Amino acid sequence: MQKTETPGKLRTFRTPFTPSYWKEAAGEVKKPRILAVTALFIGLDIIIGMFYIPMPFGDNLRVYFGYFTNSMCCMVCGPVMALIFGFVRDILGFLANPSGGFFFGYTLSAMLGSLVYALFFYRARITVVRILCCKLIINVCVNILLGSLWSAILFSKGYYFYMVSSTVKNLMLLPVEVILLVLFYQVTLPVLVKMKWIPEQPKGRMPLI
């Protein structure tokens, strides 16, 4: 069984790898409400992105908090809009707070990170394990592997230097980010369900799996 559906309610898909999932995700682009929600989250994410904690080791290593608004937008709006969100948010974020020269590699990372959030959270049953797997893929594949490549291209040191420092940062932050996201969604998921922005979720504590 690939999806569950209740009349009058948003559908929950067991996997994103079905034609019906992508048909519904593509349909979000045509909805004025979704476009307005995406614009709202882009604005919020740009504001939050102006605040960060610089790391004491490595070039261009900073701790950001935009994963709250990023993940929620992707949960509500789906993978197609997530790619648009990542692209527009990175461009506007750079224009609002330019730091060095513009580099499209970071735009690509922003789009891929948003896509991963959407694939795990859009029309899904949100669990602790799902959040952990999502953040693990983003931190390792997008932040460490791709981020180190972009740093090696832009700065003077080699790829492995940036990979080591990025690995330390991202693996240290992973459990903290997962815990914060679990607590964040424990509070916000009931509100999103009530607003009919996401499908019904299990009541009570967030399930483990």
Alpha-carbon distance between the termini? 18 Å
Q: Helix and strand succession?
A: EEHHEEHHHH
According to DSSP, the number of beta strands is 4
Give the helix level as a range of percent: 55-70%
Mean pLDDT over all positions:
89
Structural class: mainly alpha
Approximate strand percentage = under 5%
Q: Could you name the ranges where pLDDT drops below 50 across 5 or more consecutive residues?
A: 1-7
Tally of individual helices: 6
Largest sheet: 2 strands, antiparallel
Shape: globular
List strands and helices in order, with pairings.
Layout (H helix, E strand, L loop, with lengths): L2 E2 L7 E2 L5 H9 L4 H18 L3 E2 L7 E2 L3 H30 L7 H18 L6 H27 L4 H36 L15
Antiparallel strand pairs: 1-2, 3-4
Describe the structure in your own words:
By secondary structure, the protein is mainly alpha-helical. It contains six helices and four strands; from the N terminus they run E-E-H-H-E-E-H-H-H-H. A two-stranded antiparallel ribbon has the order 1-2. A hairpin with a 7-residue loop joins strand 1 and strand 2. Helix 3 runs antiparallel to helix 4 (104-121) and helix 5 (128-154) packs antiparallel against helix 6.
